[in-house]
Please model this.
Amino acid sequence: AQTVTQSQPEMSVQEAETVTLSCTYDTSESNYYLFWYKQPPSRQMILVIRQEAYKQQNATENRFSVNFQKAAKSFSLKISDSQLGDTAMYFCAFTESNTGKLIFGQGTTLQVKP
Amino acid sequence: GAVVSQHPSWVICKSGTSVKIECRSLDFQATTMFWYRQFPKQSLMLMATSNEGSKATYEQGVEKDKFLINHASLTLSTLTVTSAHPEDSSFYICSARDLRGGKSTDTQYFGPGTRLTVL
Model:
């Protein structure tokens, strides 16, 4: 079975500092996609970053970057220069390539403190 | 970008009535949409996959006669909660699969969600 695990239920970080959220997954597929979504208090799911498994280069979107370790099946999210607006629940997810279904982790609630 | 709308954003209904929730992809066509249910502070639970022009595929344990899904066009999927009961109260979220760039851009974009309260 394909699974995604986020082992940190809650985290906090001071404004302007850097924080890393962990994610591991398990799959037998060779080509797949990994995502980080954020869900702020409004509950709107927002795409943060996307990584294609066949690409070795780690994806980056402004202050957000990932550390993708395919052999270890690890996909962590680094948020640099944390801002108050980054306060949200963050979900790591993996796509089943044939169905397009997203397999979500349990989520990590991030609190950015002023 | 890719924008997905959902309507209504919240609804209150009486037990035994039916409620319809609409999900629209506003700037792209989506042959596949997904419906999720989310309880407070929990992850999203996939209910069903909505396929344009064909029957929806339901996840194990989801009652297809209770949660009716219709994907009548490439931009609209609807979820109807039939004979709603208080235990159906939840936050329902839809997403649309963006394949405009083919598999290399395969990404789901989400609607803002619908909060359903059944009295």
About this structure: The CA atoms of residues 34 and 56 of chain B lie 9 Å apart.
